[in-house]
Amino acid sequence: MTERSSDNAPDCAELSPSWAGLRAQLDEWATELGFQQLGITGVELAEHEQRLQQWLAAGYHGDMVYMADHGNMRSRPAELLPGTLRVISVRMDYLAPDIRISEQLSDKNQAYISRYALGRDYHKLVRKRLTELGKRLQQAAGEMGFRAFVDSAPVLERALANQAGLGWIGKNTMLINRKAGSYFFLGEILTDLPLPMDKPYTQDHCGRCTACLDICPTQAFVGPHVLDARRCISYLTIELNGPIPEDLRPGIGNRIFGCDDCQIGCPWNRFSNASKEGDFSPRHQLDKASLLELFAWNEATFLSRTEGMPIRRTGYENWLRNIAVALGNAPRSLEVTDALQRKRPQVSALVQEHIDWALQQQQNPR
């Protein structure tokens, strides 16, 4: 059976037999569909809404204008789906078995891709499972409206998961679970069914630990729980269109799509669990690929190899831009210099500028 929402689950003795049975049935269905935990919360997010507005006012979202779109809809689920009374929050582990993290990061000739992005794009997989969960609930409860979301709508998913009892929001802004760390996806079902709610996870087990803040290569954390996305490697390599600020390029190292450092540094990820989903296993051996190998891809190869993967989102131009920066950070070698020089006439002005930077870095003493 799916893990109940921490030790904060409601007292089923206080619920009517029908509600208690339906809640237990939801856990069983969630397990059958591959989710590791399920929790239920209401739609009140006033405290999180205030924090979001402060974060946006500070400009920490950078070019992610969608974070400021839709007014307060992001923190008010009932505006996203009128009539919403409850949010069902679930999590699904994504770390593939036998994935090596530290070794690939330490070898600067290797390409590092965030662990969540090595396999199939999770959006479709998780949303399909969530929709099936919603349909089962609908069949059992009768007439009911619902919508399933996985990063596909303006929803404060970590805040909702926290209030549904799935874990606490750590200093690295990730949702952390004592038994599973933070290597998992989140998804939500908005429903007008007045389901019994789980208690919020109110404990913060980070304590005085600042490992996640200290390890950040670009010092993107303004302080605990506050991330300046403009300095975050995930933002720079995925969200940002245009040139990567020069002062941040050395800190990117060999990370060409996303970054896991603030999770790698978290002691709670000692308890992370390997995913049982084969679709999350690395494709095309991208967990072992060299920078030069990936830099040699033409656009057709990029589109073919990244089909159905999160990596496709960055686009070919930004893919080359990111790898050029990583090659600039790689150990000095004639092979790297030759690859950069050969690629330069074939690419856009944006990529050429990053190649020029990389060539200059290759010439500098290390």
From TrEMBL:
- State where [4Fe-4S] cluster 1 binds: C206, C209, C212, C266
Pathway, per record: tRNA modification; tRNA-queuosine biosynthesis
Provide the GO biological process annotations: tRNA queuosine(34) biosynthetic process
Show the GO MF annotations: 4 iron, 4 sulfur cluster binding; cobalamin binding; epoxyqueuosine reductase activity; metal ion binding
Cellular component terms per the entry's GO annotation = cytoplasm
Q: What is its EC number?
A: 1.17.99.6
Which family does the record assign?
Belongs to the QueG family.
Give the NCBIfam families listed for this entry: tRNA epoxyqueuosine(34) reductase QueG
> What protein name is recorded for this chain?
Epoxyqueuosine reductase
Question: Which source organism?
Answer: Thalassolituus pacificus
Question: Which gene is annotated as encoding this protein in its UniProt record?
Answer: queG
